[in-house]
Design brief:
The chain is of the alpha+beta class. Helices cover about 20% and strands about 30% of the residues. It has helices at about 235-240, 300-305, 325-330, 335-350, 370-380, 395-400, 405-410, 420-425, 455-465, 485-505, and strands at about 15, 20, 20-25, 25-30, 55, 60-65, 80-85, 95, 105-110, 115-120, 130-135, 140-145, 155-160, 165-170, 175-180, 185-190, 195-200, 205-210, 215-225, 225-230, 250-255, 260-265, 275-285, 310-315, 355-365, 385-390, 440-445, 470-475. It has an eight-stranded mixed beta sheet with strand order 21-22-24-23-25-26-27-28, sandwiched between helices. Strand 11 (about 130-135) and strand 12 form a beta hairpin. The longest helix is centred in the last third of the chain and has 19 residues, at about 485-505.
Length: about 500
């Protein structure tokens, strides 16, 4: 999974007690009726953490999420919430067997009478909207909290009085804290603009971690009902003192089907209104994702602004934070509406911002964004001076048989590959190689099991065989992401050099 091969072992949940004499023997919690361990990982792979299990307030019960799928695990998203005694007696009890989609992240109320968790409703769809569910533990009855709130929440934090849930979610290019009245479902934003990545609540305030396009993360606080926001930390103040960031601005335009589409522009550092600036046109992955107002550590538009480029980022159809219908709209249409949105977004930016030079633009993307740059190479070959495709899909048919999370491809393509070949081929980059002519930098990690390494090799081979100016950067020790610091430096230096080579601009001083 992700970048490792299964070796027959599972991560299991244990409970142990500390006494004056030391640590007692650990007791297996994630167990079946026969006492054996579940055929599931607790927490889940590859990115599961302690948000997937929790104690009851009286410490007698553990709630956790698990997916018991056996050989079907690669095409299953059927997580369930389980309940088990801390004492280790009896089997873990499945609280959500009726839902074949994703149930996880249990959060008990302070009085122990209710259990809150997040649940999807469509099996095999990892980008479905998470609903907030409330379960009355004494009766087993459940209801959805805030069913009319068309956003997908992150972790759930309860207020001390049990009346409010605090969470964060993508919302129109931001990712703020929301306070949700449990009884009425009424929601309100309380953290201001930016991206929130952590929340804590005490009797008087909500503390949260927030960043934005011009600042890395720091701690902030506001009242339980919102109001004035105070800054608690300034961790990077010394490091940021001499950095000249580009100013961000959000804009919108009528995209595919006339739907409103949002985008961001980040001006070059040291902006001079009398100059014309080349464009770094960034395309996010997912595809159900969003660049948003976020200080990212892998695809940060400020790294391009600092090189003298204007960065443009479009939240095309399929992006998150604009309602589930908008997110759903990309499935089965990877090369359709999103491409129209990108084309119209760039056109709108060129009209709106006179300092942009449309004749000097490079499109860059990773994962789905890498797919899109490969698709642009054949379907919009005159759009850009250069392309950068990182961990991009070159052949959707091969991807459908080789990725380690089959549920993703099977949902996006409408089912298994052998029954949906026409859906796969209609926007498959490999079918448009005859149109390729734009210089392309291809980057891929050898340990990428999500979009296997051969996809990058194939794209580079196609470019070379077509006589297209191209370069291949590969990492034997990276997966779908570039995580090691020196590798990241090399990545950015290589990408920046590629843009400078083809857009002919020197970085701002």
């Amino acid at each position: 999974h992700w970048d490792t091969w299964a070796n027959g072992t599972r991560a299991q949940l244990f409970a142990a007690e500390f006494t004056d004499a030391g640590l007692t023997a650990a007791r297996l919690i994630s167990r079946c009726a026969d006492g054996k361990p579940m055929d599931a990982d607790v927490p889940s792979k590859p990115h599961g953490d302690d948000s997937e299990f929790t104690f009851s307030p009286d410490s007698r019960t553990l709630y956790f999420a698990a997916r018991i799928a056996g050989v079907t695990e690669p095409w299953s998203t059927n997580f369930d919430v389980y309940q088990s005694t801390v004492s280790g007696s009896g089997a873990a009890v499945n609280l959500t067997p009726e839902n074949l989609a994703w149930d996880a992240f249990p959060t008990p109320s302070e009085d122990g009478k209710k259990l809150y968790y997040r649940a999807m409703t469509r099996a095999s769809f990892e980008a479905d909207r998470f609903r907030i569910m409330e379960r009355t533990l004494s009766t087993g009855t459940t209801r959805e909290v805030a069913p009319n709130w068309d956003r997908s929440p992150d972790g759930l934090i309860l207020s001390n009085d049990g009346k409010t849930i605090y969470t964060s979610a993508d919302n129109l290019g931001q990712h703020p804290v929301f306070a949700i009245n449990i009884a009425t479902g009424k929601t309100r934003e309380i953290s201001g603009a930016g991206t929130v990545s952590g929340i804590a609540v005490d009797k008087n305030r909500v503390v949260f971690v927030r960043d934005d396009l011009t600042a890395p993360a720091d701690l902030y606080a506001t009242g339980l009902n919102g109001g004035a926001i105070s800054r608690i930390s300034a961790v990077n103040s010394a490091q940021l003192a001499n950095i000249n960031f580009g100013a961000p601005e959000q804009f919108s335009f009528p995209g595919a089907n006339g739907d409103t589409v949002f985008a961001w522009l980040v001006k070059p550092a040291g902006f001079d209104a009398s100059r014309k600036y080349p464009i770094a046109f960034l395309i996010h992955g997912g595809p159900q994702g969003s660049f948003g107002n976020h200080f990212h550590y892998r695809w940060n538009p400020q790294t391009y602004a600092g090189q003298g480029f204007a960065a443009v980022m479009v939240d095309f159809h399929g992006s998150t934070g604009y309602g589930q219908k908008f997110t759903d709209s990309i499935s089965g249409d990877w090369g359709g509406k999103p491409l129209v949105d990108l084309q119209k977004g760039l056109s709108t930016a060129l009209t709106k911002y006179a300092f942009l030079d449309g004749d000097r633009a490079c499109a860059l993307g990773g994962s789905y964004g890498g797919y899109m740059t490969n698709w642009i190479a054949g379907a919009w070959p005159d759009g850009f001076k250069c392309l950068v495709t990182h961990a991009g899909i070159f052949d959707k048919r091969f991807m459908a048989y080789s990725t380690e999370e089959l549920w993703f491809d099977e949902w996006e393509n409408g089912g298994v590959a052998w029954e949906h070949s026409s859906d796969i081929e209609k926007d498959n980059p490999v079918t448009r190689v005859q149109n390729w002519k734009t210089p392309m930098l291809v980057i891929h990690g050898m340990n990428d099991f999500r979009v296997p390494f051969e996809q990058g090799v194939s794209a580079f081979t196609a470019a070379q065989r077509k006589g297209v100016a191209s370069k291949f950067l590969w990492y034997p020790d990276e997966n779908h992401w570039i995580l090691k610091p020196e590798n990241s430096l090399q990545w950015h230096n290589t990408v920046n050099a590629w843009l400078h080579l083809h857009l002919d601009v020197m970085p701002a001083k």
